[in-house]
Amino acid sequence: MINDLVADALTRIRNAGMRRLAVTTLVHSKSVEAVANILVEKGYLDSSNVLEDGVKKTIKVVLKYDENDRTVINEIKKISKPGRRVYKGKEEIKRFKNGYGTIIVSTSKGVLPNDKAYELGIGGEVLCTVW
Hints:
The protein is α+β, with helices and mostly antiparallel strands. It has one domain (5-130): Dna Ligase, domain 1 (2-Layer Sandwich), CATH 3.30.1490.10. The protein is 25% helix and 34% strand. It has three helices and eight strands, in the order H-E-H-E-E-E-E-E-E-H-E. It starts with a helix and ends with a strand.
């Protein structure tokens, strides 16, 4: 059984990018679905769809590549782990990689990218960083 579904999803996306796969599937949870939707919204993935097979749900993710056939995700890293949670205030999540990267934060208003969390004036648990 997988303990950290978000870390598993990020690893599956990272591995699919290294193997130049077009599509990969992720184990479904609300937080994984929210992270995948943020990655689509920010332009790191082409699309993500929830697939239902009876009771079991999965998320089908289509990866995005540039004109040189390299993945647009340079680095995707899990920050907060089950053994060590990392929390940041609104001022600490303002920018990442000079605005080229994204911090995905779990807040009281849901899972948000750093720019929206800063606009709302809330901090939270830093799930991962992407650039």
